[in-house]
Structures are given as structure tokens and as C-alpha cells.
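Hi R.,

As promised on Friday, here is the backbone we talked about, encoded as C-alpha cells. Could you run it through your design pipeline when you get a chance and send me back a sequence?
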């Protein structure tokens, strides 16, 4: 009888571990730090627009920057930060969602290297350049192995084209959220190559702040439809920008 009970416990443990593994979701966010000097943007206060300083950058450490906003969220737990990891990434942070087995890795790129940021994002959306992060003896897969990729920052494609390995490496499904001005027009030819699903992107000028990303991710974690996730993104943008929900829906769209 004792051996039977032990066997049942063993099977239950295996099933639980398998379920947790199946439920695991990873998100990789590529942030091009706001840079008055090296990007074609309308200048912001110098403290916010220093693309080489993660401590106060508009898209990273300001109130609605990716690091600060997610770190302050009651839905996420801040796990770790690593500085100057190479490839122009000035800081990398890891967070875990509090009610699901979802992890988010965000990279803050030196604003001078916005082109490389976009290339890395696009190659990841094609399933390339996987990144492994070990957390509590669990190997988390980001880069091209993440299920959701996001780019945050200035739309550098307004000023330059990029080249890279944009042919999809496999048939895995990958979603993309691109919060940058007029990103649908400028990123569309590239996402058509990478075959990533444009979950949320933009038709006009916008503030690429983290609340839009966070609210969209809330729906993505719940496996909502693309339309429902886009609705969340639009509600977030209207909530913070007071632009009207109709206007936000016109700005934030989904699909090709």
C-alpha cells in the first residue's frame, strides 16, 4: 500500500511539473533608450534624453519607463538587474508575473545604437538569437525563443533601413508589440519577412510608454484574442493620455 501511495505522489509531481513547464511564458522587450543627440526625435529634457544613462532615461527609468513601471506594478515581481552585459545593452532586468508562470526580460540599449536594437528585435521575432537565463534552477528562454517580443522607442526606420537574418528559423508562433511612431507602416515589410504576428502596433505618432505594453500583456497572459488585447492597449493609452478611446483605437491596431 505504501509503495502504491508513493507511486501516486510521484506521478502527481511529474504531472504538476509538466503543467508548470507547459504554462511557462516568456516575453522579451527591446528598449532603445531615448537619445536627443543620436536619434531624430523632438528633444526632451536632457536628463530624460541621455541615451547613455539608464538612471533617468524617459523610456527606462522615468515614471512610465519600462523598468520603473513594471517594477512598481503590483502584478509583477522584480527579480534582478544586470548592467553592461554587452552588445550595447546597458541594463537587463528580469521580472516574474505574480499570478502566472510568465517571465519578462527587458533590455535597455544605448540610444546611440538604435539600429542594432531594431535588428536584434526583428531577428528575435524571426526566432533567432535565443537567450537563456537561469532562475531557481529553471532555464528561461528569451530572444528568439520568447513567445512575445516587443520593441519600445523611437521609430528609427523612419530614417534608415536595416539588414539582418529576418527569415524565420522555424514555424513557432511569435507575437510582436511595437510601440513606436507609425510603426505599422515602417515595420510591416520586416514583420512580413519574420512571420511574427503584429499583436499591437501604431498608425500615428505616439508616446511609447510602458502602460500600453503592460495592459496589452495583461490580456496576452490570459490568452485573450488579438482584438481584445488591442482593446486593452487602446484603453491604457486613453487612460493615461486622455486622447479619447476612439482616437486610441485608431492609433493602436492589430494585424497586417
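Update: got your reply. Pasting your designed sequence below so it's all in one thread:
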Amino acid at each position: 500500500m505504501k509503495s502504491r501511495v508513493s507511486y501516486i505522489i510521484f506521478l502527481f509531481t511529474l504531472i504538476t511539473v509538466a503543467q508548470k513547464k507547459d504554462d511557462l511564458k516568456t516575453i522579451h522587450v527591446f528598449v532603445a533608450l531615448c537619445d536627443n543627440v543620436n536619434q531624430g526625435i523632438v528633444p526632451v529634457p536632457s536628463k530624460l534624453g541621455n541615451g547613455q544613462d539608464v538612471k533617468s532615461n524617459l523610456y527606462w527609468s522615468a515614471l512610465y519607463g519600462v523598468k520603473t513601471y513594471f517594477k512598481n506594478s503590483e502584478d509583477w515581481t522584480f527579480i534582478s538587474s544586470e548592467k553592461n552585459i554587452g552588445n550595447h545593452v546597458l541594463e537587463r532586468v528580469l521580472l516574474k508575473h505574480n499570478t502566472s508562470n510568465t517571465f519578462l526580460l527587458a533590455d535597455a540599449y544605448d540610444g546611440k545604437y538604435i539600429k542594432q536594437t531594431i535588428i536584434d528585435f526583428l531577428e528575435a521575432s524571426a526566432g533567432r538569437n535565443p537567450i537563456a537565463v537561469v532562475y531557481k534552477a529553471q532555464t528561461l528562454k528569451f530572444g528568439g525563443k520568447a513567445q512575445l517580443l516587443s520593441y519600445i522607442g523611437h521609430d528609427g526606420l523612419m530614417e534608415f533601413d536595416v539588414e539582418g537574418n529576418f527569415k524565420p528559423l522555424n514555424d513557432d508562433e511569435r507575437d510582436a508589440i511595437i510601440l513606436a511612431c507609425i510603426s505599422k507602416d515602417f515595420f510591416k515589410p520586416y514583420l512580413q519577412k519574420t512571420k511574427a504576428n503584429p499583436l499591437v502596433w501604431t498608425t500615428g505618432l505616439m508616446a511609447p510608454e510602458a502602460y500600453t505594453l503592460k495592459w496589452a500583456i495583461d490580456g496576452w497572459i490570459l490568452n485573450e484574442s488579438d482584438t481584445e488585447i488591442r482593446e486593452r492597449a487602446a484603453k491604457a493609452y486613453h487612460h493615461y493620455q486622455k486622447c479619447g478611446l476612439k482616437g486610441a483605437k485608431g492609433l493602436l491596431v492589430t494585424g497586417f
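One thing I noticed while checking it: Confidence is low (pLDDT under 50) at residues 5-21.

Thanks again,
M.
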